[in-house]
Specification:
By secondary structure, the protein is of the alpha/beta class. It has 12 helices and 9 strands. The chain has helices at residues 18-26, 46-56, 69-80, 99-110, 141-149, 167-173, 184-194, 227-241, 245-266, 272-293, 299-310, 312-323, and strands at residues 5-11, 33-40, 60-65, 85-88, 94-95, 114-122, 135-139, 163-166, 199-210. α2 (46-56) links the parallel β2 and β3. α7 runs parallel beside α8 (227-241) and α8 packs antiparallel against α9.
């Protein structure tokens, strides 16, 4: 067990956090790694920090490119990655020193296409996990998708960064991250899991997700949040084309719930005209999806989603209270 593993880290204006991230990767207990730092046109000191790491450790490779967004940076790293396996870490996060070894061991010993671990959120500090305490289990990629939709995979989620993939999954199925889209993981991760015949879940919190106000997920509402709805529409169509009826039903429910949630978020904008425009767009798309796929919902959910047409403000407010 000594395959080369490529770790791709997109970098953009995170000088305050970048060293902590890269240091946790350099200190991995698994040593046969290449660390690809993709400077996505950063305007702070990140480009110099990346170059300093490349001089410090021969395993570090640096790409300097014009800004193209997180998706473009990940794709640039994928293009030059030489490992049989690949993983993505965000440059403002941190990881356990055991994460690569344990995820790789899980793939290699179980002949898995993908391995995943749990994650924990932190603001300033975190506690590294003891690798001896972790169990694991095996499932199909489709089973894991179902778990995530059902809320049982909350600490796994449709995110890129707590997973190790065979690089061939990207190559054989033509999977890339969508250019200039937010929520790029939602467009992509379900495809990688779907095409994974076997997934190993390592039951330990080895990825440390930093919660900060300037990150995409915690910044003020913008129209780009609607990418999350578009991605879910594409997911429904993907499962339809694969004739995966049960997954399609789950994806439809996920779409309606997400659209209602994002509608509520948009209503808190100070820009009233901007909200009206977004409101009209969400409702227009929602109605199209309802006409096509509303019959796939059932019971109380179906009634609730139908009521969104009649009183969207009230329904969206109630939805968030129920979710809490």
């Amino acid at each position: 067990m000594d395959e080369l593993i490529s770790i791709i880290i997109p970098v953009y204006n995170v000088e305050k956090y970048l060293r902590q991230c890269v240091d946790t990767v350099l200190n991995q207990t698994y040593r046969n790694i290449e660390i690809i730092l993709v400077d996505d046109g950063a305007t702070d000191t990140c480009p110099q920090i990346c170059d300093d790491y490349e001089k410090l450790d021969a395993r570090v490779r640096v790409i300097h490119k014009v800004n193209g967004g997180l998706s473009d940076a990940r794709n640039a790293g994928l293009h030059i990655a030489q490992g049989k396996y690949v993983c993505f870490f965000d440059s403002d996060d941190a990881v356990s020193i055991h994460i690569v070894e344990e995820l790789y061991r899980a793939c290699a010993e179980n002949d898995a296409d993908t391995s995943v671990c749990y994650y924990q959120k932190f603001t300033d500090s975190y506690s590294d996990i003891d690798a001896k305490d972790m169990g694991h289990r095996i499932c199909t990629g489709k089973d894991l998708i179902s778990e995530i939709y059902a809320g049982k995979g909350e600490k796994i989620a449709f995110v890129a960064w707590n997973k190790l993939y065979k690089k061939s999954l990207f190559e054989e199925h033509g999977i890339l991250y969508p250019y200039r889209k937010q929520h790029e993981d939602i467009y992509t991760t379900y495809k990688l899991l779907y095409h994974s015949k076997k997934v190993c879940i390592v039951e330990g919190e080895m990825y440390y997700y930093r919660v900060r106000s300037g990150s995409i997920m915690n910044s003020k509402f913008s129209e780009k949040r609607l990418d999350a709805i578009e991605a879910r529409m594409q997911t429904i169509e993907f499962y339809r084309d694969q004739n995966e009826k049960e997954l399609q039903k789950m994806a439809v429910n996920d779409y309606f719930g997400s659209a209602i949630k994002i509608y509520d978020e948009s209503s808190k904008r100070n820009d009233r005209e901007g909200h009206k425009k977004i409101k009209r767009r969400i409702l227009s798309d929602y109605k199209k999806v309802w006409r096509q796929y509303g019959q796939l919902t059932q019971g109380i959910k179906k009634l609730f989603y139908r009521c969104f047409f009649i009183a969207p403000d009230m329904v969206s407010a109630c939805y968030l209270k129920l979710k809490r």
